[in-house]
Design a protein that fits this description.
By secondary structure, the protein is an all-beta fold. It is built from no helices and eleven strands. The strands form two sheets. Strands 2, 4, 5, 6, 9, 10 and 11 form a seven-stranded mixed sheet that branches. The chain is globular and about 40 Å long. The N and C termini lie far apart (40 Å). 30% of the residues are buried. The mean pLDDT is 92.
Length: 124
């Protein structure tokens, strides 16, 4: 199986930036979709961004469009989430997820592999 591990979370002031990393280990796949979800305290999981490992296509939620950038390095089995202009409402646990096939929609049930999450806190 594949294990995903996130890193890069922390405390940052509003307007600041963070770069999250997600590295896969245990097994590699030539083509699948990687994504970031987040879950704020007391709320459900929210889709953030996704990237197709095969085509390089990226998708973003409206709430982060223009501020966040997802990218990947297939050779390193790593996906990144560059977060700029952070807002307090971005505070959440961020999870890396992988799908063995391209999902029709970015629902949590469509993803087979999940990391343990990394905390991002945006506060003054």
């Amino acid at each position: 199986q594949v294990q995903l591990e996130e890193s890069g979370g922390g405390l940052v002031q509003p307007g600041g930036s963070l770069r999250l990393s997600c590295t896969a280990s245990g097994r590699s796949f030539s083509q699948y979709t990687m994504a970031w979800f987040r879950r704020a305290l007391g709320k459900g999981s929210e889709f953030v961004a996704a990237i197709s490992r095969g085509s390089g296509r990226t998708d973003y939620s409206d709430s982060v469009k223009g501020r966040f950038t997802i990218s990947g390095d297939n050779a390193k089995n790593t996906v990144y989430l560059q977060m700029n202009s952070l807002k307090p409402e971005d505070t959440a646990v961020y999870y890396c997820a992988g799908a063995s096939v391209s999902p029709a929609q970015y629902r949590t049930a469509a993803f087979n592999y999940w990391g343990q999450g990394t905390q991002v806190t945006v506060s003054s």
